[in-house]
Amino acid sequence: MAKIASRVHSIEVSAIKQMPIIASRYSGTIRLDQGIPDFPMPKPARDYVAEAFRTDKGITQYTLQPGMTQLREAVSGSIKDKYGVAVDPENELFLSAGSIEGLLCTALTFLERGDAAALFSPAYEPHIQQVRLAEAEPVYFPLEEGSWRPDIGALENELKKGAIRLIYVCNPANPTGTVFTVGEVNEIAMLALTHDAVVVADEAYDFLAYDKPYTSFLPLFPEMKKNLIVTKTWSKSLAATGLRIGYVVACDEYLREMLKVHDSAVISAPTPGQYAALWALRNPNEAEKAVEEFRSELRRRRDLMHERIRGIPQMFEASTKPEGAYYFFPRMAFGGDSVDFASTLVREARVSVVPGAPFGPGGEYHVRMMFGAPVDMINMAFDRLQQYAASEDFRAYVKRVQKIS
Amino acid sequence: MAKIASRVHSIEVSAIKQMPIIASRYSGTIRLDQGIPDFPMPKPARDYVAEAFRTDKGITQYTLQPGMTQLREAVSGSIKDKYGVAVDPENELFLSAGSIEGLLCTALTFLERGDAAALFSPAYEPHIQQVRLAEAEPVYFPLEEGSWRPDIGALENELKKGAIRLIYVCNPANPTGTVFTVGEVNEIAMLALTHDAVVVADEAYDFLAYDKPYTSFLPLFPEMKKNLIVTKTWSKSLAATGLRIGYVVACDEYLREMLKVHDSAVISAPTPGQYAALWALRNPNEAEKAVEEFRSELRRRRDLMHERIRGIPQMFEASTKPEGAYYFFPRMAFGGDSVDFASTLVREARVSVVPGAPFGPGGEYHVRMMFGAPVDMINMAFDRLQQYAASEDFRAYVKRVQKIS
């Protein structure tokens, strides 16, 4: 039996990926676990990719290692249009296999043993795993329960100690839905500049702020090139999680280093995803129309799930509506263990949610529920949860877990 | 300026990916660099994927983290058919974003500071980079110049010292074309078992042995589960490098650990590639027919390139034909620096090849030339090389490099 490296021994497969595997063993389970909205990719994008598979050999071949030249130019153009800033398509961005691979390149490039990375917590679990994979230590800054607002003062105090290299900002945040205000974004940026840390802005849900304007870190790129890395993805905005396509913006000195990891990780981003992204950038009106439909439909589903959560107070504390992304993160009303509870819900109610504990401090006693599922499915899931919550079995379960704790 | 982690600082973007970027700056350059054969993916496979893009939402969505259940079952079935051994589709294999991502998971899972990994050299350069990315040390076992046969005795002596965790076997080998004999495969397997090392069998070119039977490590899996990891890919056999799809076979204890890295690297393998692989496994006759066409066409191109290399003795020493894969690795007839020579060839002859030095000891004074390009292209490239070799400029170049060395 070979020895397992300590960097891997110390981490887990994210609960977000474990729950679908558990759910797949119970047929008929309704999945509110992994972040896959039920929308299809917009039809003209699918037609464009399908046509390329029939007629364009390029779609099945490697691209240049940082991505297709015309796609990098189109990304740079769209950043200029949207945020008014210049990003050099040749030296300041590359196409990644989803955001996650860009984030892996970031962690392995900037973190090593003895370093620390700041995470607002509950945090997006893969950020935690990637920090550990890079042999660094996560330092958590708990968001305020319920409102999920960050405590920037606490971050500042820790930055003064000097060990923090990266500050992860998942905005809108997964799993809490926090949308960072313009004030919070500017304060964090200023702290990074002052203390020579690098903000890692994971902006996968940038089009999903429901109640207030969204503030990206990208417009700050020219002033904080040495202190900012931004990752974006088409997984959510094109409803194309399976195509594994995103991009990373970083200054040229950083990008050169990150591309070494990218090269060792996937060689080049999957080409069908690059074609789909090119469609979106060349057809901004159609792509934006799809995004608006997603957003308005998701707002409707959010309001529905909010009502349904309030309908089972013996199971969940009433939570505020998330400001962004597509997850509720309600507190369990009865204490207990979130990992055990999530398994129990699959088994007893055939509803799969993600336990909160793996998202770090502040995550325990919560579960994450995705509202990307269609209305009928959300209703059916909550009918099941409600039925289970009203059952003798659930009362017995609550009694048992309360006795343990 | 943020500090760059030493694991990344110590490596380079592989020359295999740098040459295409350099080549893209000189229009009209003929590319014999990166391993992209010019074949299209078989038409029925392209039609299958295209149709799924039009009608099946699943092709744009995440799959389960280890890959689609039906695909894992089909892979297991094809291994059973082809090699007669049982691989549990649930616990002993996962779908990766090309071989490279499976190999990254391997390096990060089994290697850490203080460990060593054995590589037959000239080695596939990304293996070297991945070993370094995992903070371990590569130990090289030079293949015999020209015949490119391994020295198994040297490997045994080093294994006795106890630091070697992984033994990389790229078979057929990139860049040398070495096809390991059944005797060599069995000897290496026995050494791994005896000295408790793990063979990492990278079998990307398993269908491309031209002159003698091919010996996979896979049939040995049942007897050496704790000492063997096998990676395969459809990149070459389906002519689908851009789809980024391959798989890894490992025992369940190892797979569980490797999936943590997979999760942090790409979440799940790109879904369009998984569909293409499913097509190949469900249509083995059609897929095998395409593979036979590739092989017979590549044999023809190999013979052509062999003749053409012999036609410019002032540039290359006559080399034997490679036994497998689709690369020649001839020695430069005039000494010099391979990195400088490769850049010079792009600039002066508009032909892009890969310098040999980055492939490790034994690689310097060689270049790698891919014969996946069509016959006309190979001829045109060698017409250019021949013309340059006959020029005053080339004689001046040779004089200059010989003076330096």
What's this model, at a glance?
Chain A is built from 14 helices and twelve strands. The first copy, chain A, has helices at residues 6-9, 15-23, 43-55, 69-83, 98-110, 125-133, 152-159, 182-195, 252-265, 271-282, 284-310, 338-349, 375-389, 392-404; strands at residues 30-31, 93-96, 116-121, 137-142, 164-170, 198-202, 228-233, 246-249, 327-328, 351-352, 354-355, 367-370. In chain A, the strands form three sheets. The first copy, chain A, has a seven-stranded mixed β-sheet with strand order 2-8-7-6-5-3-4, sandwiched between helices. In chain A, strands 9-12-11 form a three-stranded antiparallel β-sheet. A two-stranded parallel ribbon of chain A has the order 1-10.
Give an account of the 3D structure.
The structure is a homodimer of 405-residue chains. Helix content of chain A is 44%, strand content 12%. By secondary structure, chain A is an alpha/beta fold. In chain A, the strands form 3 sheets. The first copy, chain A, has a 7-stranded mixed sheet with strand order 2-8-7-6-5-3-4, with helices on both faces. A 3-stranded antiparallel sheet of chain A has the order 9-12-11. In chain A, strands 1-10 form a two-stranded parallel sheet. In chain A, helix 8 (182-195) links the parallel strand 5 and strand 6. In chain A, helix 4 (69-83) packs across helix 10. The two termini of chain A are 38 Å apart. The mean pLDDT of chain A is 95.
